[in-house]
Fold this protein.
Amino acid sequence: MFYITTPIYYINSTPTIGSAYTTILADIVSRFKRMKEDVFFLTGLDENSKKTIRAAEKAGMPIRDYIDFMAIKWKNAWKILKIDYDGFIRTTEERHKKVVQEFFNKIYKNGDIYEGEYEGYYCDECEAFLSEKDLVDGKCPYHHKKPAYIKEKNYFFRLSKYQDRLLDYIEKHPDFIQPVKRRNEVVSFIKQGLKDVSISRPSSGWGIEVPFDKNQTIWVWFDALINYISGSPYWPASVHVIGKDIVKFHCVIWPAMLMSAGYELPKRIFVHGFLTVNGVKISKSLGNAIDPIELVKKYSVDGLRYYLAREIPDGEDGDFSEQRLKERINNELVANFSNLFYRVTSFIEKNFNGKVPEPTEEGEKEKKLKELIEETLNNVEKEMDELRINRAIKKVMELSSEVNKYFQENEPWKDPTNSRTTLYYSVNALKVISQLLYPFVPIIGERALKALNSKVCKIENLKKFSIKPGTEIRAEMLMKKIK
Ligand code: MSP
């Protein structure tokens, strides 16, 4: 079982291109993994933040109505973006609350929770306690706002107790935090010394109560992280996909919480970078948000998914540009793949009555193409195992370029009756490309496979040519150039 998660998103705004990126990335990986094994893909919403109260007030709606209204908006957005999740968790659900309170009680009984007083900064946007060291010019580095200075009674979690165990675990599990750059950052952060952290706040009437103290609400991050357990029938997670802004919560606090409560740790935490505009993180609170649904209207879901996967370097920041989005679609998805697909399938329709021809002889070129297909399959699988979707899709498109070359060089139009081998090989290569593209561009991928009278199969079956001679196929124009 491959169990993959996204962060659960704050419900006070609708998805931006940033949250869409994380979710699309996780969807691409889970669609790919489903070609090999069972997958559980969990996403959801973080509803217990104080931001929810403020947003409901601003919208002039009772809070329960507001969260239900927003949850529908998020689910609709994921439907449009073709996010094929298996589980959806909302932290206001009873099933979640129960697990959180049990978890809290468990670590309280272990002696890892004690009462204390917190004095310091709190960023309402991050929902995080910040130290002087975290601030840049006195402001939160992510939201560019002055955090509140607070002094209040809290329950504390003995994070400091887990410092050595965490370091030891990270050292023994080199794949636990990826990419390596993030792993190194986490290690050096822990080595500077971990302080205990507050895990409750004075009650505001919203959120999950501390089970033995109704005047205190469980800190929203402590509550939210537990969604990975409450939202899934499986544990541990195979991979948590997160953005680089929430590394400390996932790579330090969460593993320590799990150690304290006696759970296994997630197998891997994959950290990606930010989508930026002119180098600045895209976010609602910074006022430079980009609505993914608007982009879909202009460029199609597949176009947007393809662009994000292809353009944003794995694990790094990437600057968003509509111009590049258009270029990637036109030069690659359309000119490289879709046009090839149409050329091959319409040739078969015209010259072979829509039936895949029987190959005559296999020459050097065919042998090479077959080798390239195998090599691509192996490489793409390896890259996808490491969540390097950027490199994976590049390899798929390289195969498509090679098939273009193969088709072009063989000039089947010069002598259609002697082009059987070329067409047979081209069409089988198209099957492989279509299926490898399917996790990235599910609508086009499915349509392509359907036109080939085929469907998504297990990845190991792709090595054998499965579009047999005589198979009836259809000419299909998958995507047109965007003006
Ligand atoms: N609710 C917390 C997460 C709790 S998980 C137990 C939270 N929510 S959030 O709505 O702010 O979403 C944060 C995540 O959205 C980031 O970690 C990242 O995955 C994604 N992104 C939001 N803006 C982003 C960019 N501009 N670029 C890339 N991803 C970004 O934090």
Q: What stands out?
A: The chain is about 45% helix and 15% strand. Residues 7-10, 16, 18-19, 21-22, 46, 224-225, 227, 242-243, 245-246, 274-275, 281-283 surround 5'-O-[(L-methionyl)-sulphamoyl]adenosine (CB under 6 Å).
